[in-house]
Amino acid sequence: SFSRSSAKFVAPLGCLLSRQKHTLPDLPYDYAALEPHINAEIMQLHHSKHHATYVNNLNVVEEKYKEALAKGDVTAQVSLQPALKFNGGGHINHSIFWTNLSPNGGGEPKGELMEAIKRDFGSFANFKEKLTAVSVGVQGSGWGWLGYNKEQGRLQIAACANQDPLQGTTGLIPLLGIDVWEHAYYLQYKNVRPDYLKAIWNVINWENVSSRYATCKK
Predict the structure, then answer these.
(1) Residue 25 has what DSSP assignment?
(2) Pairing relation of β-strands 154-161 and 173-179?
(3) What are the E-state strand segments in the chain?
(4) Could you tell me which residue ranges the Manganese/iron superoxide dismutase N-terminal domain spans (predicted)?
(5) pTM recorded for the entire structure
């Protein structure tokens, strides 16, 4: 059934059939906290407008989906799936993204995560270069990700188009996501995505990425 096959996609947001509405999560810091690397205007628009829109649209789509399920209207269910993937993915991706950033971020990870990065990419510098290159290379809008391949027990880098959620589309567990939609950087960096990517490493919250890694390894 659809609900079972999509369980890994919907799980982080709670059950599709629950009456709980999705809400915009609060940022764990002020809009201006990541300056000069990401300015307050970008953060405010990105969070209060773009992410909020995904949340609102997701709630609308889920209502329609529930109606289609209740009626047993498979055609309607199928036609709603792209909107569910786009808005659900937008909500999942941004909810991770905000926690991946911190005014006290930057530098390098420590402990188990650093060991895994060295094991799977040779060095932190190699990993940084590779994730940056993959993120720069996303055509149009999308995301660069560091994910964990549970079956193989290793870290992997991947790119996703648009708001495709990493786990729902690749099976990798998301650890670190870099948003390369223009709305994430254009006001400050114009069309020079590499400059934005260079800057974002100064605010990566390695503590959060490390705890995500520790959790998914269990």
Answers:
(1) P
(2) unpaired
(3) 142-149, 154-161, 173-179
(4) 21-102
(5) 0.89
Tell me, rounded to whole angstroms, the distance of Cα 198 from its chain centroid. Answer: 18
Distance CA 210, CA 100 (A): 10
Complete edge-to-edge strand list for the sheet that includes strand 142-149: 154-161, 142-149, 173-179
Catalogue all structural domains in the chain, each as residue range(s) with its CATH number: 37-217 (3.55.40.20)
Neighbouring residues of 135: CB distance < 8 A, sequence distance ≥ 6: 143, 144, 159, 178, 180, 193, 197
Alpha carbon 6 to its chain centroid, in Å, reads 18
Asked if residue 179 belongs to a known ligand binding site, the reply is yes
Residue 60 structure tokens: 């609308």
Q: Are 134 and 173 in contact (CB under 8 A)?
A: no
29 φ, ψ (degrees, to nearest 5): -155, 170
d(CA 91, CA 134): 22
| DSSP summary character for residue 204 | B
Does 47 appear as a known binding residue?
Answer: no
Asked if 117 contacts 215 with a C-beta cutoff of 8 angstroms, the reply is no
Mean pLDDT, consecutive 10-residue stretches, the chain (218 aa), reads 40 51 95 98 98 97 95 96 97 98 96 97 98 97 98 97 96 98 97 97 98 92
Q: Rounded to an integer, what distance in angstroms lies between the CA atom of residue 174 and that of residue 207?
A: 15
Give the tokens for residue 171. 């099976």
